[in-house]
UniProtKB/TrEMBL annotation:
SMART domains: HTH_MERR
Residue ranges the record marks as coiled coil: none
Protein name (record): MerR family transcriptional regulator
Organism: Campylobacter estrildidarum
Top-rank lineage group of the source organism: Bacteria
SUPFAM superfamilies listed in its UniProt record: Putative DNA-binding domain (SSF46955)
Pfam families reported for this sequence: MerR_1
The keyword Kinase is assigned to this record: no
Amino acid sequence: MDHHYDEPVYLISVVAKVLSIHPQTLRQYEREGLVEPSRTDGKIRLYSQRDIDRIKLILRLTRDMGVNLAGVDVILKLKNQIHEFENLIDELRLELSKQKNPNATSKAVVKHKNSFDLIFYEKK
């Protein structure tokens, strides 16, 4: 049975067994805001494959690298920010490649973000 990566299909007991952790650990991760499983109308937690992969990353950070949960939270937020920046850079590169002014000496794209401005110039 194939499921979409983000489809919530796994019960907490199944996830705990597959990852060899106690269900209470999963509840703690949820309380800490590290993972957000979906809920059925009856409030039963359902995890997607994306959730499971995120939990595997949390376990690697805590077990293998000795990071505490506060550190894990910071790492996950930074990882998410990096992903957003990579998407923005791809978007800006695409915009630069679409600019078609042969008379311009340099091409630039300016993006205004909440706390800063990004200005990208095409390499010559």
